[in-house]
Amino acid sequence: MASRDAGPMSRRWRNVLLVVAGLAAAALLAAVIGVYWLLQPDRFTTAMQAQASALGLELNLASPASPTLFPRPALELQGITLNERGASMPILLAARGRLALPWRTLLGGPTVITRLEIDAPRVDLDALQGWLSRLPASDSSRPPQIPRIDTGILISRASLVRGNDILLENLALETGQLMPGEPFSLDVTARDGSGDPVLMRLLTTPRMSGASMQFQNIALHLSHGASATIDLRGSARWHGAADAAADLTGTLDSANAGRYELAMQLTPATTRDPLLLRLKLDGPGNHANLELPPLALAGWWSQLSSEKGPQLTIPPGRGHVEVDKASFGNVAVEGLRLDIGDDVPAGAGSSAGAQQGP
Q: 128-138: buried (b, 16+ CB within 10 Å) or exposed (e) per residue?
């Protein structure tokens, strides 16, 4: 008798389990649909592509952004390509990226990124310089805005290249929170093409002032192995595109040549002149008073340590240089006196400038 009752009871439990499983499956499907609806990856992808397009860039993904809620709401990006519109050489290639987003953004609030992570990006300096050199003058009606990133940015296993030449590899970048009026930190470690360590640490407080981003209380530390260390302090502003300005002073400590006083001023691009860097260096045996276009200067500097052999040429710009003894990559220079361009840069007079001949 008990065995005959077991059949209906078993079937009844099976039916209950089937109903429970069906409800669980329906709940899971609803959750998946809800995640997709909340994160709206198409909305964020379109917004990122629109922002890139406004700067003359094209942003492409190997596959549509995929949403996730755990451990926090985020969008996973695969196969990231960023290039100048119409250009064949990408500025940036990255295996994957991740945008963590707060709930208030998902529910229709302002677009805020909690954290940005990028894995194995490859940045081509030639392509980046080409895009920057063609940026139009800033449009004051559309001032730049400081993006808000609650817990920072993490970039790992990155490389900086020029064509097939590796300038920096195994690069890691990490920042603290980024929001107006709050202290911001940026740390970068890498190795150059020769395997020597490179370190940068930046501390500043970003603010909005009118239509410009202001960067106050800048403390910048740079080191290249044990051979050179630079420490600078000052301020900067950015109004968009090549409308940038900075005023930094500090020291350069060279293991081989001693300590130098260093001053750097960045002046915005105009209809007549490109973005310019005014550089003044004074120390034991070496002096410089130069006005240089930084984008062109980056290309000149990379030639000094090219794997195809150093190419010592006149740097772009104008000014006066006196070098008793110095090393640039694999090139050693002694007893150099050099006048570049027509005269010493206006407004950047120095003792070096006073020594310049007619």
A: bbebbeeeeeb
In angstroms, what is the C-alpha Rg of the chain? 27
Residue-wise pLDDT for 90-124, tens only, equals 999 999 998 887 777 666 666 677 888 999 999 99
CA–CA dist 226, 254 (Å, integer): 9
Say if residues 185 and 205 touch (Cβ distance below 8 Å): no
Rounded CA gap, 91 and 124, in Å?
5
CA 309 to chain centre: 28
Non-local CB neighbours of 91 within 8 Å, separated by 6+ positions: 57, 82, 83, 84, 123, 124, 127, 128, 131
Is residue 148 within 8 A of residue 118, CB to CB? The reply is: no
Between CA 224 and CA 190 the distance in angstroms is 10
Q: Identify the band that residue 139 occupies on the pLDDT scale cut at 50, 70 and 90.
A: low
The Cα 272–Cα 276 span in angstroms is: 11
DSSP 227: T
Q: What pLDDT shows up at residue 268?
A: 85
